[in-house]
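To the structural biology subgroup,

Please find below the input and predicted structure for Thiol peroxidase, which we are adding to the shared reference set this quarter. The sequence is reproduced verbatim from the submission form. If anyone notices a discrepancy with their own records, reply to this email rather than editing the shared folder directly, so we keep one authoritative version.
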Amino acid sequence: MNVTFGGDKVTLVGEQVKVGEMAPEFKAVNLNLSEFNSKELEGKVVVYSVVPSIDTGVCSIQTKFFNEEASKLGDDVAIVTVSVDLPFAQKRFCAVEGIESAIVVSDYRDHEFGKKYGFLIDELKLLSRGIVIVDRDGKISYVEYVEEVTHEVNFDKALEELKKLI
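Predicted structure (tokenized):
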């Protein structure tokens, strides 16, 4: 798949995940600088909302949208926003925007999520934009890699696929 950022072709590092595969386990960094381990979410339906930087307009919209949805979905669904923003910037953003229902993690340290899920943009060391939904058994049930990183994800399709699992 060809992905562009502002119209310029970029290279995604790692293998893009596919529906039906087991979701790779990964570690990232929580807002309080503690370790986040995706394994902690086993048994839940998980939506990974992947954004380049929460400080941009489209990323902000995506993060706020999924935070709002998270507040409606109950405890057996986890919404996780992943970016490479530093946890300090993420924490400030969450405080200003009232992000309380979604989990926000940083992939800045090892880019483990970006590499294992095929979202890391080699040229920029940012994550591409997309959605990955994982079912309760740890299988990927929906994936969207947005072809032009500055465009929005398909919110309606992601919610439709999520609701099939809950």
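Summary notes: The CA atoms of residues 17 and 117 lie 6 Å apart. The chain has one domain: 10-165.

Regards,
Lab coordination
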